[in-house]
Amino acid sequence: MSERRFGAQKLIVSEIFGPTFQGEGYSLGRRCGFLRLGHCNLACSWCDTPYTWDWHRFSPESELSRLDVTEVAARIENMAVPLLVISGGEPMLQQAGLVSLFAHLPPGLAVEIETNGTVAPEPAVTERVSRFTVSPKLTHAAMSRQRRIRPAVLHAFAATDKATFKFVAASPYDLDEIETLTRELDLPDVYVMPEGRDPDQLMERMRALAPAVQERSWSLTTRLHVLLWGDRRAV
């Protein structure tokens, strides 16, 4: 579905919730609000938000809402948080709507976008965003490399000097693929996050990954929301 069909003054929204804590990556633990947008251009086998795009299992009529950006901004402002995390789905599919939303947000509100790194950021989005958390997908996402890895787009994110590159790893064997990608594409500021949707699995995988991540001088992130609340939505 094209961005033009979404409309610049509307956003296709899955969830708006908070105050909560950022559960992953660069800002882990920070108090924040979440804006989760609908639709995605990928189909990761382990996706933890399939209700934003998988219409074989979920209904877009019940899962998504088409909201005016002023309504979205009002709900975000009512949270009274210092940080807004925009996720998905793939939020970069709705950049025109995001630019419209930004005009209604409090000037001091920090904004982070979580993206799969396949759609390049527009200048007006880059200007307002504090941080991009870019998460290129590995082979275990069960898609072709051509679909999930877009070198020119990843370079565009790196050129903003606002990007952290976060890779989801299921086992230490995935770290070799991450190392190959980051060297080939010269990606900076690498984070590794264990794949897992329950606390026991998450901790087991994080302990297995930690020594090799340390050896490579990368950063390791957990999934704080999973440790706190398990697989519950919108917390």
UniProtKB/TrEMBL annotation:
EC number: 4.3.99.3
Catalytic activity: 6-carboxy-5,6,7,8-tetrahydropterin + H(+) = 7-carboxy-7-carbaguanine + NH4(+)
Required cofactor names: Mg(2+); S-adenosyl-L-methionine; [4Fe-4S] cluster
Record's cofactor remark: Binds 1 S-adenosyl-L-methionine per subunit. Binds 1 [4Fe-4S] cluster. The cluster is coordinated with 3 cysteines and an exchangeable S-adenosyl-L-methionine.
Pfam families in the cross-refs: Radical_SAM
Binding site for S-adenosyl-L-methionine: 46-48, 89, 135-137
Domain spans labelled Radical SAM core: 27-231
CDD domains from the UniProt entry: Radical_SAM (cd01335)
GO BP terms in the entry: tRNA queuosine(34) biosynthetic process
GO molecular function term, any single one: S-adenosyl-L-methionine binding
Keywords: 4Fe-4S, Iron, Iron-sulfur, Lyase, Magnesium, Metal-binding, Queuosine biosynthesis, S-adenosyl-L-methionine
This protein's record includes keyword Cell membrane: no
Residues annotated as binding substrate: 21-23, 36, 87
Pathway involvement of the protein, from the record: Purine metabolism; 7-cyano-7-deazaguanine biosynthesis
Chain positions recorded as Mg(2+) binding sites: 49
Positions with a binding annotation for [4Fe-4S] cluster: 40, 44, 47
Domain of life (superkingdom): Bacteria
Quaternary structure, from the entry: Homodimer.
Family: Belongs to the radical SAM superfamily. 7-carboxy-7-deazaguanine synthase family.
Functional description taken from the UniProt entry: Catalyzes the complex heterocyclic radical-mediated conversion of 6-carboxy-5,6,7,8-tetrahydropterin (CPH4) to 7-carboxy-7-deazaguanine (CDG), a step common to the biosynthetic pathways of all 7-deazapurine-containing compounds.
Protein name stated in the entry: 7-carboxy-7-deazaguanine synthase
Native species: Planomonospora sphaerica
Lineage of source species: Bacteria, Bacillati, Actinomycetota, Actinomycetes, Streptosporangiales
Gene: queE
